[in-house]
Amino acid sequence: MRHGDLFCVLMGTAAVLAPATAKAQGEGKQQLSLAEQPLGAALRAIGARYGRNISVSSDLVDGRTSPAIEGRFGFEEAVAELLRGSGLVAVPAGRGLSIRRAEAASDDRDIAAEDDIVVTGSRIRGTAPAGARIVTIDREAIEQSGYATTQQIVQALPQNFGGGLNEGTIGFTIRNNSNANLGFGSSVNLRGLGTTSTLTLIDGNRVALGGVSGMFVDLSLIPASVIDRVEVLADGASAIYGSDAVAGVVNVRLRNDFEGAETRARFGAADGFEEWQFGQIAGTGWSNGHLTLGYEYYRRGNLAASDRDYATEDLRRFGGPDYRKNFSNPGTIIAADGSIFAIPRGQDGTRLTAADLLAGKPNLADGRADSDILPRQRRHAVFGSLTQDLAPWLRFTAQGFYADRRSEVRTTPDNYGYVVVPVTNPFYVDPTGTGEPVMVNYDFTKDLGPETRRAHVRAWSANAGFEASLGRWRAELRGSYGVQRENDLTVNVPNYYYLAEALADPDPASAYNLFGDGSFTPRATIERIRGYREGEGVSRVRSATLKFDGPLFALPGGFARLAIGGEIRSERYGSTSTDFDFSPEPDSGGSAGFPISRSVSAAYAELSLPFVGPAQHIPLVEAFDLSVAGRIERYSDFGTTANPKIGATWKLGGGFALRSNWGRSFRAPSFADIRTGRGTAAYIPLPVPDPASPSGTTNVLALIGSNPDVGPEKAVTWTAGAVYTPPALPGLRLDLGYFDIRYRDRIANLGTDYMAFLGNRDLYGSLITDNPSAELLARYYGDENFRNPFGIAANAIGAIVDGRTLNLSSVRMNGIDFDLGYTGAAGETKVSAGVSGAWIFGIRQRITPTAPDQDVVATTGNPVDLRLRGRLAVSNGPWSSAAFVNFTNGYRNTTVVPSAKVASWTTVDLQLGYDVRALLRGTRLSLSVSNLFDRKPPYVENADIFSASGYDPENASPVGRLVALQLVKTW
Hints:
Largest sheet: 22 strands, antiparallel, barrel
Number of helices: 14
CATH superfamily of the largest domain: TonB-dependent receptor, beta-barrel domain
C-alpha cells in the first residue's frame, strides 16, 4: 500500500472513532430524541434517520415549528407525532410519505401528492408504472449484503448475467464483447441479452459510457456508500427511455436527501486477495434547500492465477486437455523443414549444440503462470447534490459525480510468433544441418517481466435543471453532460523490430540469446527491445430534456395523469492508439474507425388512467389502472423508430393483484458493432476440432470483430404477473411474473464459438467457407488486422469461419421471475425471510435465416435456466444477522466437442452486526463473510483463441471465502 493510500484509510478510521451523536439507520422502531425546531428540518431529520423519502412543499412547512419528541417510534408514527396539531397529514407515496393539508388529503388525494417521487419505469410523478414489476435493493438490503462495491450488489440479482464486460472476464473469454473492456470496468447484463441492451441510469440520467466505443455504464465507478437504492425494471422500456432499454433499466438512486454525516471503513480479505474501503457522506438542509456531499476511496489487491489451481492452461488434472503452448523458456526451435526441437533445461545457451536438442518434443509453458485473475485497483469517487428553491414555484437542482480509477493486471503473454534467428546470431544452433535460419518460440517473461496492462479511467458527469410548479402541473427543464476517458497501457512486450536487429547481431556481448534456460541476454539489449502498446478512448454524452406532467381529469379511481416531453442527445466516441512493438519509432494505430458520433431526438407521451378505485365497491375489482406510453426517436445514422407500450394492473381485493404489459423496443448498433479500420477485427489462423477430418482437426482462418453492415435490433416484450399479500398473514408477499421477449435481428458475435463451427455444420454451415481460394486467403493474410500466433501457413487453411458481429435472425426468451418473502416481528425481534429467483424456460435462437433454431439456455455464454437467492435476516436490539444462499444451476459447455456438463454452484453469505451503543453511540460494527464455505467454481473447459482456464468467469467468482470487517459511524 502506498503511503498516501494508508493515510486515507487511517484518517478515515480516526473519523469513525470520533465521538458523535448517534443516528441509527433502519426501518423498525427507533429511539428518538428531537428538540423543538423548524418543521421542515425535523422532517428531513426523520427521513434521513429511517432512510425513507418525505415529500413536502416548502410553503406547507415555512414558519411552522415541530414539537419536541422523545421515545421509540416507527417511521410513520414519528412523522405523525411531528405533524400533531399542524393541520397537515402524511399519506403514503411509494416507500415514503407525502405531506399535505388535511382537507387536500381527503378531497383530492391523487393531485397534490408525491411531487418529488418518480418511479423507475414511468415519467409521471407519484405514479407507479401500471403492469410493471420493479425490483428494489434499498439501503438496508445493501448494508445486509456485506458487499463493498456496486457491481457486487447488482451481480447478486438473479435476473443479471455475469457475461460481458466485467473485470472478471478480462483475459478469460472474448464472449459478449469482453475484450472491449478498455478500463477494466463492470456492467449490467439483464437476462443475458447483452450489456448494450440494458440501460443503466444514475438518478434517471444517462452518463458517458465505458469500454471500446462506449459499450456500457461502468458500475464499478459508482461508490456503494452513496447509493440510496437500486431500482431494476427487467422489462423492455424503449417507449419510456428509448434505445438500450430492450432488456430493462437499472436506475441507481443516490442519497441526495441525506441529513447529518456518516463515516465508514471496511477491510476484507480472502486467500491471496484483500480490499480496503473508506467512505464519507454529509448532508445538511435549510428552509428552502439541501446539500449532500460524498466521497469514497476503494483499494483492492490483485488475485494471482497462482493462487487458484483452476486458473491454468494445463487442465489434465481436471480430466481436460493440455492447452499449454510451445512459447516457453527454455524455448522451442522450429527448423526450416518444420520439425520441432526442445531446447534443454539447465544451460545458458552459449555452448548449445544440435546434439543437445530434444527432437519432436516441444517445451510447453502455462501462459497463466505469471498472470492475474483479477486486477489490482484503486479508486477515488466524489459526489455532490444541491437543491435550492428560488421561488415558491421554482426549484433549482444540480448533481455532480467524479471518479478516478487505476488498475493493473498481469496478462497471459501475447506471443506473435515468427521470431527468426539468423545464422549470424552467436548463439544460433542448426538442428538439421541445413545452415538456414530457425524460428524460436520463446517466452520473454523472464527477460522483460510479466506482460502487464495498466488502465486509468477518469469519469465525470453533471446535470442541472429547473422544476416549476404550474398550478397542478409540473414542468422540468434539465441538461446533462458526461465524459469518460480511459487509458490502457500494455508493457513488458518485445519490440520485434529491435528484436530482429538484436538477433542478427554477431557480437555475443550485445546479441539476443533465445537458447538458454532463463534470461542470459545483456540487460542493455533487453531494454533496447522493450516495447509497449497504448490506447485511449473518450466517450461523451450530452442531453437536454423538457417534460410536463400533471393531472388531466377525474376518473373513478383517481385522476388521470399525463407526462409529455422531448429530448435531444448526442453521443460521441473517439480513440487513439500507439504501438511500439513492430516499428523503430512509436507508430500511431490509426483511427480504428473513430471518432464516431450520432445525435438522437425524441418525443414521448405517457398516460396513466386509474379507471376503478376502492370507492366503487365493485366485486373482484378493487382497482384497475391502465398506462399507455409511446416514443418516437430519430437517429442521425439509423432513421426513425416509434415504440409503444401498454400496461395494466388489476387489484381483485383480498390482497390479490394481476398485472401485464406489452411493448416494442429498439436498439441502435453500438459504435463497436459498426466501426471499420485497424484494430476493429482479427483474422487468425488456428486449428479447430473437425469430426470429418482424419486427424480430428482442421486449420481454419477465423474472422472475428466488427461488421459495418450490422443494422438495428428490434424486440417485442410481453409480461404478466400476480402479487398476493394475504390480509390474514400480514408481512407475507408472493410475487410471480412471466416474461416473453422476442428479438429480431439481434446483434451478436459468434467468434467465441469457433471451436464448435466445424462440428455443428447444421447450425453454422452458412458461416463456413470450405477450401477458400488462394487469392481470398492472401487478402486476409495481408490485412492489417491479421495475426498468426500458431504460425499456420496460408496453404494449410482448410476453411474460413466467419464469427464477426452480425444480426441474428431471431431470438425468443421466456420464463418467470418470482419472489416469496415474509417480514414480521415478535416483540423486539424482527424477522425477514424469502427467496427470489429467475427461471428461464428457453432461449430459442436462430443464428442465420437458414439455420434451425436452437435452445441455448443453460449453455456457455448464455444465462443458466435457474438462479436463486435466498435470504434470512433477524434483528433484536443492537444485534442483527443476515444470511443469503446463492444458487446457480448447472449448464452445458457447448464450446467443446462433445459438449460437457457443468455442475451447479451454491454459495452462502453471512453477516453479523452490532450497534455499539454502550461505548460509541451511533457506531455499528459488522462482520460479513461471502462464500462462507469457500466453494470453488465448478470445472469448465474454458478455451479461447489466446488462452484457456478451468472455470467460467461468467457464472462464478474466483475470490472464494472473503471475510470483511466494517465500521460505520453516524453523527
